[in-house]
Write a structure and sequence with these properties.
This protein is an alpha/beta fold. Helices cover about 45% and strands about 15% of the residues. Helix 6 (about 130-145) links the parallel strand 3 and strand 4. About 55% of the residues are buried.
Length: about 450
């Protein structure tokens, strides 16, 4: 602790944030390299993966719980991410990939984590046979496992957008919803489509252990919307934008210091590498832990009103500026999340008619990720879903940032009805989607070329 220069005052202030303002470490995620687990057949590969996750992850939950007790900072989620499974299983058929997924699920249950990420494929320039077989297996895997999370990267600013992959994912999302219809399409809450996916993201459902990562890493996702909300409220309406930004920066600094302390200690005790701190403000359905409420405290009548995107841009920028002063190792997504079902203020804004998918899309130009945890009518076509994905990928590619889509076409539900996922996944009203079809456009096939500014070498 002395090596980090953390003062007693910082510790006491952190304790106050925990007790009064919902501060927590949102996730501690152990990344595990699986490259040495490849065997001649799927069952042996699955066994090797199971054994390695148990070997490296067996103490993760205990270490996290010990740190919670010692420092009084709640660590909400303990998770594991692994090397993208399409790489490890390349050459296997879909049945082989399913064996691996079941081994991942069993191992994650055994070590006590709530999610395991990395059932993933990176297809921004095209597919291998393994990529296609993994993607084809996603609906069944997410319907038959509890903890496995899946992600597919379909675009980068260097390569453009793989529209074949975008169209396939529109269909995969529909199939996943249908196979989990008895639970309102909950399988889709564990599936995300990315542009510019980071290799060190600790948050689910998009976490995977990148190919450039070491044998194992500890990555930390901080939180603290409640803390920032309290600070903005105290400033009142007389503070100008410079004062607002400065107050948020100072708060983000304090939150990040807590995450840095926990991350380094966890890595040491797990005999792993300390990876990164993800500076993202991640909301929960709990009252007072909302990104939307922060924006409203800045002076918006409702999140979604004109000015919302500007307010979110200010928040995102201030969080990053404060965080980078507190740690040298910033990574992951780092910003502010706007998941509808996981944010009580967002839910209220949608219910009031203030917030639409189109406004959320505009907000994703400046936020941490993209269209997240949005429930839409179950009869939405896969072409419309593909069009929504394509739009979001374009925002990421052109702006050289990570964007993503986690969208749930809830079987049997119509606009205005509600879906209840429970826990941190929350609840959401079914949102209206544009009724005009992009079918001809998304079926053209091929790759939308990378933008001119990708030629920056």
């Amino acid at each position: 602790m002395n090596e980090m220069g953390i003062a007693f005052q910082e510790i006491t202030e952190t304790i106050r944030m925990v007790q009064a303002e919902n501060l927590d470490i949102r996730t501690i995620t152990l990344g595990i390299n699986l490259n040495d687990c490849r065997r001649d057949d799927p069952s042996k590969t699955a066994e090797a993966i199971y054994n390695k996750i148990l070997k490296l992850g067996k103490n993760l939950v205990k270490v996290a719980e010990d740190l919670e007790s010692e420092y009084g900072i709640p660590i909400v989620n303990k998770r594991v991410s692994v090397t993208p499974i399409s790489i490890i299983g390349d050459g296997f058929d879909s049945e082989g990939f399913k064996l691996i997924a079941k081994a991942m699920d069993k191992a994650s249950e055994e070590i006590g984590v709530n999610f395991i990420g990395g059932y993933s494929a990176l297809v921004h320039k095209g597919f291998t046979k393994g990529d296609l077989n993994l993607i084809k297996s996603i609906p069944e895997v997410l319907s038959e496992t509890v903890r496995v999370c899946s992600s597919v990267n379909v675009a980068t600013s260097k390569s453009g957008i793989n529209m074949d992959a975008v169209l396939i994912m529109g269909n995969i999302i529909k199939e996943t919803a249908d196979l989990t219809a008895d639970k309102d399409g909950i399988g889709c809450t564990k599936l995300v489509v990315f542009a510019n996916a980071p290799e060190d993201n600790p948050f689910m459902a998009g976490s995977f252990h990148g190919v450039g990562e070491p044998e194992s890493t500890v990555n930390i996702g901080i939180s603290g919307p409640g803390v920032v909300h309290r600070v903005v409220e105290k400033l009142g309406s007389d503070a100008d934008f410079g004062e607002l930004s400065e107050a948020i920066k100072k708060t983000a600094f304090k939150i990040t210091r807590a995450g840095e302390l926990i991350g380094r200690l966890a890595a040491q005790r797990l005999e792993s590498h300390f990876g990164i701190i993800d500076l993202s403000l991640a909301p929960t359905p709990a009252i007072g832990d909302s990104i939307a409420n922060i924006l409203e405290a800045m002076g918006l009548e409702r999140c979604g009103a004109p000015g919302t995107t500007a307010a979110l841009a200010l928040l995102n920028d201030a969080v990053k500026k404060g965080g980078v002063m507190a740690t040298s190792y910033v990574g992951g997504l780092s910003g502010a999340f706007i998941p509808v079902s996981e944010d009580a203020g967002m839910i209220d804004a949608v219910s009031a008619g203030a917030l639409t998918i189109e406004k959320l899309e505009a907000m994703t130009c400046v936020c941490s990720v993209g269209l997240d945890m949005i429930a839409i009518p179950g009869d939405t076509s896969p072409y419309t879903i593909a069009g929504i994905i394509a739009d979001e990928m374009a925002i990421g590619v052109i702006n050289k940032k990570t964007t993503a889509v986690r969208i749930i076409p809830v079987p049997g539900k119509k606009v205005g009805e509600w879906v209840e996922f429970g826990g941190l996944l929350g609840r959401a009203p079914i949102m209206e989607v544009n009724r005009f079809s992009p079918e001809i456009f998304v079926k053209r096939g091929g790759r939308i070329p990378a933008p001119i500014h990708s030629l920056n070498n």
